[in-house]
Design brief:
The protein has 4 helices and 5 strands; from the N terminus they run ααβαββββα. It has about 190 residues and is of the alpha/beta class.
Length: about 190
């Protein structure tokens, strides 16, 4: 048995544990906290003006989820509703009103959000159901299901939690843009 080998072994063990703790701390710092999809980032850019005299609408969004900071990025009902209201106003199609009668009622339900747990390129698939009814009528006169996807590559964002949020926002943008295009003939 070599003299001092126990001391050297303990020191090496401490260094390995210290390195493991540092590595774990760096991984947590790199992961960060989840942040929800932002309403402004979900509004499509360059929406064409589809109507000159917008009608009014009561908007409701369903099926969204709140983001838990230590979880994954989600799309909340309130944020999706705000983005949709901005998109409809930019298109000159419908102006959202709250707590008063409107020409229409638009309900958009987020039926499915498919998110990866881990991936270098984050792709989110979003399925939304759109229902449009005239004021005072229970049954919608127009319904449609819109499927959208958006991918954010590793080269666009290093942090996975941010890549996921950007992918959520992109899928929501695509759904809102397609929804506005399909909705336009119904209200103009």
């Amino acid at each position: 048995m070599r003299c001092g080998s126990g001391f050297t072994g303990r020191r090496a063990g401490r260094r390995i544990r210290f390195a493991a703790v540092l590595l774990a701390a760096a991984a947590l710092a790199a992961a960060g906290c989840a942040s929800p999809a932002q309403p402004g980032a979900m509004v499509p850019a360059g929406i064409p003006v589809l109507a000159r005299e917008p009608r009014t609408v009561n908007l409701r969004a369903f099926g969204g989820e709140l983001t838990i900071p230590l979880g994954r990025s989600k799309i909340s009902n309130q944020d999706f509703e705000r983005a949709l209201a901005q998109g409809l106003a930019q298109a000159g199609l419908l102006l959202a009103v709250v707590d008063k009668p409107a020409d229409y009622r638009l309900d958009v339900t987020i039926e499915e959000v498919v998110q990866p747990w881990f991936s270098f390129s984050m792709t989110v698939e979003l399925v939304t159901r759109w229902e449009l009814a005239r004021w005072g009528e229970r049954e919608p006169f127009w319904t449609d299901t819109i499927r959208s996807t958006h991918t954010v590559p590793f080269s666009a964002e290093f942090f996975g939690i941010r890549r996921l949020r950007l992918a959520n926002e992109g899928a929501a943008r695509a759904a809102i843009l397609e929804g506005i295009k399909r909705l336009a003939p119904q209200v103009s």
